[in-house]
Fold:
Amino acid sequence: MKLNNFSNIKKAVIPVAGLGTRFLPFSKAVPKEMINLVNKPAIEYIAESAANSGIEDIIFIVSNYKKAIEDHFSYHYELDERLKADGKEDLLKLSQSPAKLANFVYINQKEIKGNGHAVLCAKSAVGKEPFIVSFGDEYIDSEIPYFKQMMNAYEKFKTPIAASIVVNKEDVSRYGIIEGQKVSDRVWKITRMVEKPSPEETDSRLAATGCYVLTPEIFEILETMDAGKGGEYWLSDAVNIYLEKNPVHSLEFRAEERFDTGNISEYIRSFVHFSEKDPNTKGLIEKYLAEEHKEKKINL
Structure:
C-alpha cells in the first residue's frame, strides 16, 4: 500500500449510530450523544474540539432516530427570530454557535455492524484525504484540543495515530488494547491491537480510546476484511491488518483527561467535571450534597 502525501487534515468522522441501550429509557427518544453536560450536549464538546483544531467538515454517521443531532447543529429560524426581536443577543449567539462550528454531513448507517463498519460508511465523503475519527461518546478535555494533538502527532510521525490511556487490569476487557514499544514520553509504536481481551491474554494496559487519525487506505481494508468478535467489523482489526505492512503510532493521554458519556457512572463523573469548569455552576454540586447530608442528620 502506498501512503498518500501528508497534509493538513480538514475532515472528521464521528460515528453516532449506536442504540445507547445503557441509557434506556432516556435513549429511547433522545440520542445518547445529546445527553447534557451542563448547558451543552456531549456531542458539542467533540465538535468544538474538531473546529478549534482546524477541521472544516464534520461527517456524522447516524441512524434513523438521530435527527436531534442534525437539528442541534442547524439553525432554528423561529427561535433565532424571536431572540433577535427581543434583543437577546447573548442567547442568539448561543443558539447559533453549534451551526457555525463546521460544515456538517450526515450519513445513515443502515445496519449497525460495528465501529469499523461505521467508519467505512464515510468513504465517499472522505475521499482520498487523511481524516480523523472520534467516537461520539468519548471526549478528552485537555488544554490543547485533543484533535489538534492527534493531528500534530500525525504530521510528526507520518503514520496513522491511535489515542490511548493506561487502564487498570480489571478494565482491560472493556477496551481495544494496544501492544507496542514506547518511543517517547507519550508516543508508542504499535505492534498489535487486541479487541476486548481478558487480562490474561495481554500484558499491556494501554487502551485505545476511540480517536484515530487514519489514511484512506483503511477503507480498502474495511471493505475486504472478515467480521471479528460478535460478528461485527472492528476498527482495531483493520488497524492490525494495516500494521502488517505499515507503521502505526499511539499518542497517550492522561486517563483523568478522558470522559466517557457512554455509560451512566462515567457520565456522572463527566457532568461533575464540566459543572465545576463552568463559573455559573462551580461549587453547586458540593453545596447541594452538603445540604442533603445535613438534612439527613436531623433528628426527628
Notes: The two ends are 75 Å apart (CA to CA). The longest helix spans residues 264-277.
